[in-house]
């Protein structure tokens, strides 16, 4: 459903659903911030205390962990939000975003 990283195609290549009206936008980002931040900082702090390193260790560990989690999860969570938007017939104008008749 993506033509590039996070760039949603106009039409589903499986069922032909018109995706040009999808409006998930940046809705996935807050969830990813919470998940990636918790994992990255948590693992970083664990490394710092477990191996008794300086404060450089949590920083050095958190950045790649956060980057990996974001790159892995963001397309999936955005797709989930688009699916939820479709299933719940949600639209910011009060109508069904995916219904071309309204
Ligand atoms: Zn489809």
Commentary on this structure:
- 53% of the residues lie in helices and 5% in strands.
- The protein has 102 residues and is mostly helical.
- Strands 1-2 form a two-stranded antiparallel ribbon.
- The longest helix has 32 residues, at 56-87.
- The chain is elongated and about 55 Å long.
- The mean pLDDT is 86.
- Bound molecules: zinc ion.
Pick out its properties.
mainly alpha; two-stranded antiparallel sheet; 2 strands; 53% helix; 5% strand; elongated
The end-to-end distance, rounded to whole angstroms, is 24 Å
- In DSSP terms (H or I, runs of 4 or more residues), the helix count works out at 2
Q: Into how many domains do the coordinates divide?
A: 1
Secondary-structure element order, as H and E?
EEHH
Class from helix and strand fractions? mainly alpha
Report the biggest beta sheet as strand number plus sense, adding barrel if it closes. 2 strands, antiparallel
Question: Looking across the biggest beta sheet, what order are the strands in?
Answer: 1-2
Taking all residues together, what is the mean pLDDT? 86
Residue stretches low in confidence (pLDDT < 50, at least 5 long) are none
Shape: elongated
What proportion strand? under 5%
